[in-house]
Design brief:
Oligomer: single chain
Largest sheet: 4 strands, parallel
Radius of gyration: 15 Å
Order of helices and strands: EHEHHEHEH
Helix content: 25-40%
Bound molecules: 4-nitrophenyl phosphate
Strand order of the largest sheet: 2-1-3-4
Number of helices: 5
Structural class: alpha/beta
Strand content: 5-15%
Length: about 170
């Protein structure tokens, strides 16, 4: 069964495309590209159609050697049906997503990204947009931690175990 993950921030040009691309990188490392699909979206509409922010791309390239791909889109109601898990970068994004689900029937699909971190204690991925390069580097560190925990979570209790997980490698 294919699992579908959606990462959500405000603009869909910094945090959520970074999370999507980092997660895809980890998924590729264990050969699970056919089994876990990732996408990202923003709660806001300001940057629809834009590529990932150059400062975010620079941090991902420098720290992880990966190129961020993507084109911003806005979170929409149909995402609740289309995705198994929706990962909000901060509490504001989380509340926005829940406000679109008036019935509350999809509440259990929505989680905070930092819930999956094991090495960091921050509860939210801070918005780096108006800050300096250090903020973008911090976003990458948090997202690597969160994505590793998330990968562990989504690959657990699957019919076939992955060959190895980043968090369990020696
Ligand atoms: P993101 O960052 O939500 O991580 O993509 C932001 C991008 C743009 C703005 C704010 C945050 N903005 O205000 O335009």
């Amino acid at each position: 069964m294919t699992q579908k993950l959606l990462f959500v921030c405000l603009g869909n040009i910094c945090r959520s495309p970074a999370a999507e691309n980092i997660m895809n990188h980890l998924i590729k490392n264990i050969g699970w590209e056919e089994r876990i699909l990732c996408d990202s979206a923003g709660t806001g509409s300001y940057h629809i159609g834009a590529p990932p922010d150059q400062r975010m791309s620079a941090a991902a390239a420098k720290k992880l050697g990966i190129n961020l791909q993507g084109q911003a889109r806005q979170f929409q109601k149909s995402d609740f049906q289309d995705f198994d898990l929706i990962l909000a970068m901060d509490r504001q994004n989380y509340q926005h997503i829940l406000s679109v689900d008036r019935s509350g029937q999809y509440h259990d699909k929505v989680r905070l990204m930092c819930d999956f971190c094991s090495r960091h204690t921050l509860k939210e991925v801070p918005d780096p947009y108006y800050g300096g390069a250090e903020g973008f580097n911090q976003v990458i560190d948090l997202l690597v931690d969160g994505c590793e925990g998330l990968l562990q979570y989504v690959t657990t209790n699957q019919p076939e175990s992955p060959p190895s997980l980043p968090t369990t490698q020696s």
